[in-house]
Specification:
The chain is an alpha+beta fold. Helices cover about 20% and strands about 35% of the residues. A hairpin with a 2-residue loop joins strand 1 and strand 2 (about 40-45).
């Protein structure tokens, strides 16, 4: 087979795969993280870059869950301890020093320069890997999405980052 023919065949296969992928409904995907022992799902289209925690600059007179600001790729981002914000664990200034801790920046399109401190990354999840389950009874914030269970029986709480970025409590960092 000639090189030209092999190239044409490759282009044809790629074009077919691209058409097939465009015809399928986009599958929901999440970044799975752990915070305060709870599994959380952050929508991939609302999450930004992931960083190892850099040095944080404390900001006086702020809520305990607001850890300070960090320089992430030349931009200042407010850093929120998600476990403390959600009431899953007490805020710990040393949380950023934990070996597996990471900062997950919110997507730039959300218009909030913020990053979430998570205890550890747990990989990616798709809707095909999870089963929806009933949400617990009681009042829930607008950013609390669906509850899911994976094949191992672990529960996951979806957190809508766009809704979180607009949440009054999240934006009110002053103590």
């Amino acid at each position: 087979m000639s090189r030209k023919q092999a190239l044409r065949d490759l282009q044809t296969r790629l074009a077919e795969r691209l058409r097939a992928a465009q015809a399928q409904a986009p599958e929901r995907g999440w970044l799975a993280v752990e915070c305060g022992g709870q599994g959380l799902l952050l929508p991939l289209d609302e999450a930004g870059e992931i960083f190892a925690p850099p040095p944080l600059r404390r900001v006086p007179h702020t809520r305990p869950w607001f850890l300070g600001v960090a320089n992430l790729r030349g931009g200042l981002h407010g850093v929120v301890d998600v476990a403390a914000f959600l009431g899953l664990a007490a805020a710990t200034p040393a949380a950023a020093a934990r070996e597996q801790a990471r900062l997950v920046a919110l997507a730039p399109r959300l218009g909030v320069n913020a990053a979430l401190l998570v205890d550890r990354l747990a990989g990616l999840r798709s809707a095909a890997q999870l089963q929806p389950e009933a949400a617990p009874a009681g009042a829930r914030p607008a950013f609390a999405g669906a509850h899911w269970r994976d094949g191992d029986g672990r529960g996951w709480q979806e957190i809508g980052l766009a809704a979180l970025a607009g949440d009054e409590r999240f934006l009110a960092v002053a103590a």
